[in-house]
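Colleagues,

For the teaching module next term, I've prepared a clean inverse folding example: a structure given as tokens, and then the sequence designed for it. I'd like students to try predicting residues themselves before seeing the answer, so please don't circulate the second half yet.
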């Protein structure tokens, strides 16, 4: 698109164009539905692939990987998980910037292809040191997906459309990703095929699936709103203009500003961005620790390997239902903080049940509550920060810091549940309880500040986020 045409698409938030005169309300809904299917659908598929490739090591561990590579010695298993998240955390801040500079289609599909190739290679490792090295590479390549996807989604929708969309993206991916346990169980049955152990086939086949997904995403993924008319069989120029006007009326930042390192780093002075990051760190610490160790914990409860790989699915189905209900409530009533606090309390209840009850059925019920409260808190936190910031590069910086701290939470999650603490894993339980208490404190503090700032904005004493009339979402 010529530069002058892009610039002409940047009307003020109070553009006089009446979209009801351009498109009927039914046509507007069809346009948005088309965006949902194409954009969220493709991103969710890539993220499913990412999650399956990220956590398949836990299924491989109980399918013979631990024994063959002696990962049960000392802290080798936790160390291997940590190496992934160390690389994942370091390279995440680049994700949103490279998504903007290279374009979502090229960048996101390329890194998917690269980690798929590495995943195939993982099926042929013979030492735990080699496995750790390949997990570093997977961490490097996967690092760009989540911040890039979160940033891309935030540019397409108005503030009170976001939680349902983040829930669709993350929730669909997580529920489908949980089925990876069943897939891994089936692949492990290929044991001795071509003289390869079953756990090796888990990595090889899932790596091939990643490469195929990369090719599909390259063909179907769309870019930012101003480029939407260029995507194959997607939006017309008029439909693109409608989306841009819609976002501009909501927050006035539909068109990307030219890149400036100063503009990208300037939001670092905004304290609330770091509070969002701390909240997300706590959410991911609990979420990742449960995801990585759940099959092992279930085996410790007395379930068979096959049952453990399958029993991780029902908690995620329950979590998907809870996330969707919360997304509808959050967008309908325009609330964010109370939902995050509710999930933290839910997670606390689940941790107590799983950690301190001696009945395995009760402990397994606690798993449902923990997954719903911890991993289910990701879409509300993403929406919380996206609703309360403005500007493309501030959005990019906030996405980078948020998911960067999420990666640090992944490292912490890999370390708080240790093999030597089996079967109770009490240190991990205590650390997870502390994380949820911190979430409650942070949300309470932000809520008080937002209420104070909104009162100032409504009385004309303060302009928030550089836009007159803008108020924070509580």
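(Answer key — instructors only)
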């Amino acid at each position: 698109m010529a530069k002058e045409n892009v610039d002409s698409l940047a009307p003020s938030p109070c553009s006089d164009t009446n979209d009801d005169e351009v498109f009927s309300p039914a046509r507007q809904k069809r346009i948005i539905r088309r965006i949902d299917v194409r954009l969220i659908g493709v991103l969710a598929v890539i993220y499913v692939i990412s999650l399956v490739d990220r956590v398949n090591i836990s299924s491989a561990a109980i399918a013979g990987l631990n024994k063959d590579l002696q990962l049960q010695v000392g802290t080798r298993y936790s160390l291997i998980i940590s190496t992934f998240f160390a690389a994942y955390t370091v390279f995440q801040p680049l994700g949103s910037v490279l998504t903007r500079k290279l374009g979502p289609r090229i960048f996101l599909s390329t890194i998917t292809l690269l980690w798929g190739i590495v995943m195939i290679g993982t099926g042929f490792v013979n030492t735990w040191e080699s496995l750790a090295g390949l997990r570093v590479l997977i961490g490097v390549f996967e690092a760009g997906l989540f911040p890039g996807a979160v940033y891309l989604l935030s540019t397409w929708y108005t503030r009170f459309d976001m939680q349902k969309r983040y829930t669709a993206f993350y929730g669909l991916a997580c529920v489908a990703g949980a089925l990876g346990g069943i897939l891994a169980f089936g692949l492990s049955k290929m044991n001795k095929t071509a003289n390869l152990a079953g756990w090796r086939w888990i990595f090889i086949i899932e790596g091939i699936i990643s490469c195929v997904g990369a090719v599909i995403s390259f063909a179907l993924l769309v870019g930012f709103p101003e480029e939407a008319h260029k995507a194959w069989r997607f939006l017309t120029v008029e439909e693109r203009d409608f989306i841009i006007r819609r976002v501009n009326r909501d927050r006035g930042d539909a068109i990307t500003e030219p890149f400036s390192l100063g503009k990208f780093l300037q939001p670092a002075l905004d304290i609330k961005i770091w509070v969002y990051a701390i909240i997300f760190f706590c959410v991911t610490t609990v979420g990742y620790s449960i995801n990585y160790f759940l099959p092992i914990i279930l085996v410790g409860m007395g379930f068979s390997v096959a049952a453990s790989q399958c029993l991780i699915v029902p908690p995620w189905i329950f979590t998907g239902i809870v996330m969707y209900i919360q997304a509808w409530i959050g967008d309908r009533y325009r609330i964010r903080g109370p939902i995050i606090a509710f999930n933290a309390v839910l997670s606390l209840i689940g941790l107590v049940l799983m950690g301190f009850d001696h009945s395995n059925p009760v402990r397994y019920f606690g798993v449902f509550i923990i997954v719903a409260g911890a991993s289910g808190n990701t879409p509300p936190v993403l929406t919380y920060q996206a609703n309360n910031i403005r500007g493309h590069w501030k959005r990019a910086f906030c996405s980078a810091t948020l998911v960067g701290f999420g990666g640090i939470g992944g490292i912490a999650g890999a370390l708080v549940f240790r093999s030597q603490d089996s079967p109770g894993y009490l240190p991990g339980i205590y650390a997870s309880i502390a994380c949820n208490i911190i979430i409650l404190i942070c949300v309470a503090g932000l809520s008080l500040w937002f209420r104070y700032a909104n009162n100032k904005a409504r009385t004309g004493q303060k302009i928030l986020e550089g836009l007159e009339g803008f108020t924070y979402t509580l």
